[in-house]
Amino acid sequence: xxxxxxxxxxxxxxxxxxxxxxxxxxxxxxxxxxxxxxxxxxxxxxxxxxxxxxxxxxxxxxxxxxxxxxxxxxxxxxxxxxxxxxxxxxxxxxxxxxxxxxxx
Length: 104
What we know:
The protein is mainly α.
């Protein structure tokens, strides 16, 4: 399992999940959709953990100095940060719109 932890499939599928979710953020128009997207991504990542192994295995190998795993972990973390940034921006946009609508 640890040998597969830093495989391209292990990393690529997680990065793809975050990337798909990031693209979906653009089409969100309601707070409930933000929540649903977050839940959907959470469950997809949990399914990948069950199918391919837990992300903790990559982290453990990276902490032991495995350079391939460090690079792979950084790819996953970058995709996660990008998703979280876009989601936060959308949450702020949705909140601002909600406040504006209430003032009218």
